């Protein structure tokens, strides 16, 4: 147990953890919280081999494995070895999903079946990649591809093969070399390494347990093979929140956290990004993944805006609820809300000052201000309109990071004397006064009456 939290906070967190372990009847349950890159709390209930689990005890993390595979695919994209719009056939030929783009496998809307056409893959010895690929035939497709979210373990088995073919080695070798070693995640492995928890099934009507199998999934391993610890999952939460080291650009991780499909329109509460599960909870946007394999349950969530994250690992096939991770974040927010840092003056490029202040999109007033990190913030003056942050580019343009203007270019137009007189946001012209006649505003008003 760490000591960076108030005793009342630790008590509330422990009580929530203890209730989940008792009510879910998990032989052991361990959880952790991170904030600002540091692990601030770890606690456990139950026993592993007669002793409490520790932050170094391995559990099988199931489908959290998919987040690692997704990062390997995004690395290939960022290296220019593939485009997410490429057909699967261009990289792994010969399957029924060949005409689908790669991004649909990451986002679970390719139309692929959820499970492979073989014996129950989680509980039986796995098959090799050749056999696995042969089974992805026309019967592996489900209706409504490209429109409907349909979770597919098979899709991530296929993505693991894609990684292997590009790297010329098994996907696990790429994982070790490209992610685990650079991030110092020495206790994340494809097979258990002591100390580790054994997986149990708990009898539904009696307090009895039975050990579950831990088969090697082989070709399906990218869907749920990995084992890890709370310590390593803390590092992974920080990674998914944006502390990516040299493994991936933070903008790429932000792209992975962007919804591609949602379960309900409008005020969506759950969705999927590129290899990440997404939630909206009490105004917060959370990203991560749940995991389950015979004998094990896990869930990991990060709140990038608050730079916090929660994870739990349990050695039970069923019982503990995925809501535990969300509840732990809620308790942290309730008991120890973040205290804002004091404002203080900061150096600003003088050339940026002339871009600040009021700008008009037609008759609608917007304000441009400089953020502490040197980006521009374009927001409606009275809250009605489209807002976005803009990151500077080397050529003097700016790229939108949020909302409607995400990915769009902002260019600064200048008068003959060099003074900025309009902003060109992907052909939308913002001027210093409404429909400024001295700026290029097609269809501008001739006069005001």
Automatic annotation (TrEMBL):
Signal peptide from the UniProt entry: none
One Pfam family it belongs to: DUF7586
Transmembrane segments: none
Superkingdom: Bacteria
Domain Beta-lactamase-related residues, every copy: 15-322
DUF7586 domain sequence ranges: 348-432
SUPFAM superfamilies recorded: beta-lactamase/transpeptidase-like
PANTHER family per record: D-ALANYL-D-ALANINE CARBOXYPEPTIDASE (PTHR46825:SF7), D-ALANYL-D-ALANINE-CARBOXYPEPTIDASE/ENDOPEPTIDASE AMPH (PTHR46825)
Protein name per UniProt: CubicO group peptidase (Beta-lactamase class C family)
UniProt source species: Haloactinomyces albus
């Amino acid at each position: 147990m760490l000591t960076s939290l108030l005793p009342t906070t630790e008590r509330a967190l422990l009580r929530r953890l203890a209730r989940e372990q008792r009510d879910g009847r998990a032989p052991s349950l361990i959880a952790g919280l991170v904030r600002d890159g540091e692990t601030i709390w770890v606690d456990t209930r139950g026993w592993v081999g007669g002793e409490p689990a520790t932050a170094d005890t391995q559990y099988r993390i199931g489908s959290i494995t998919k987040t690692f595979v997704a990062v390997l695919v995004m690395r290939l994209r960022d290296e220019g070895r593939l485009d997410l719009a490429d057909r699967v056939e261009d990289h792994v030929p010969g399957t029924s999903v060949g005409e689908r783009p790669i991004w649909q496998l990451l986002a679970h809307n390719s139309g692929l079946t959820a499970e492979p056409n073989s014996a129950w893959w989680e509980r039986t010895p796995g098959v090799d990649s050749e056999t696995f690929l042969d089974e992805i035939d026309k019967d592996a497709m489900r209706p409504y591809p490209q429109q409907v979210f349909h979770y597919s373990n098979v899709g991530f088995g296929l993505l693991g093969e894609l990684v292997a073919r590009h790297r010329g080695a098994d996907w696990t070798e790429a994982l070790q070399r490209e992610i685990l070693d650079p991030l110092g995640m020495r206790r994340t492995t494809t097979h258990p390494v002591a100390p580790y928890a054994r997986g149990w099934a708990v009898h539904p009507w009696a307090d009895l347990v039975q050990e579950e199998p831990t088969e090697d999934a082989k070709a399906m391993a990218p869907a749920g093979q990995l084992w890890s610890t709370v310590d390593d999952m803390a590092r992974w939460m920080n990674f998914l929140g944006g502390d990516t080291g040299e493994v991936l650009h933070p903008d790429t991780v932000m792209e992975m956290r962007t919804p591609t499909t949602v379960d309900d329109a409008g005020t969506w509460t759950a969705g999927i990004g590129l290899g990440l599960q997404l939630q909206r909870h009490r105004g917060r946007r959370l990203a991560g993944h749940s995991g389950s394999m015979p004998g094990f349950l896990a869930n990991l969530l990060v709140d990038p805006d608050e730079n916090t994250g929660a994870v739990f690992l349990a050695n039970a096939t069923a019982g503990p609820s995925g809501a535990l991770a969300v509840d732990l974040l809620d308790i942290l927010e309730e008991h120890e809300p973040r205290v804002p840092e004091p404002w203080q003056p900061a150096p600003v490029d003088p050339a940026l000052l002339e871009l600040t202040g009021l700008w008009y999109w037609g008759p609608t007033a917007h304000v441009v201000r400089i953020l502490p990190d040197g980006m521009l913030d374009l927001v409606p003056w009275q809250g009605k309109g489209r807002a976005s942050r803009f990151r500077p580019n080397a050529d003097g343009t700016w790229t939108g990071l949020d909302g409607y203007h995400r990915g769009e270019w902002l260019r600064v137009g200048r008068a003959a004397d060099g003074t900025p007189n309009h902003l060109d946001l992907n052909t939308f012209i913002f001027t210093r006064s409404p429909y400024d006649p001295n700026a290029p505003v097609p269809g501008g008003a001739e006069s005001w009456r």
